[in-house]
């Protein structure tokens, strides 16, 4: 369920674009779905890397109450 909304939004944007309009409808939809999943996966990896770097540079022990 968490994967559906961002992938559907990305797919909708890509489907409305001019990317590979010469392809058959079903093949283009499959291709754009794969690209949407790759974009979502890349965004998740990038956010994970940013979180890892942030936690490595700012350890929680630095914060005192």
How would you describe what is shown here?
With 65 residues, the chain is mainly alpha-helical. The chain contains 2 helices and no strands. The chain has helices spanning 4-16, 25-57. The N and C termini lie far apart (38 Å). The mean pLDDT is 87.
Question: What features would you highlight for this structure?
Answer:
single chain, 65 residues, mainly alpha, 2 helices, 0% strand
Helix content: over 70%
Instruction: Provide a count of the helices.
Output: 2
Question: What is the CA–CA distance across the termini?
Answer: 38 Å
Q: Which percent range describes the beta-strand content?
A: under 5%
Radius of gyration: 18 Å
Oligomer: single chain
Helix/strand-derived class?
A: mainly alpha
Nearest-integer average pLDDT: 87
Number of beta-strand segments: 0
- State the low-pLDDT regions, or none: none
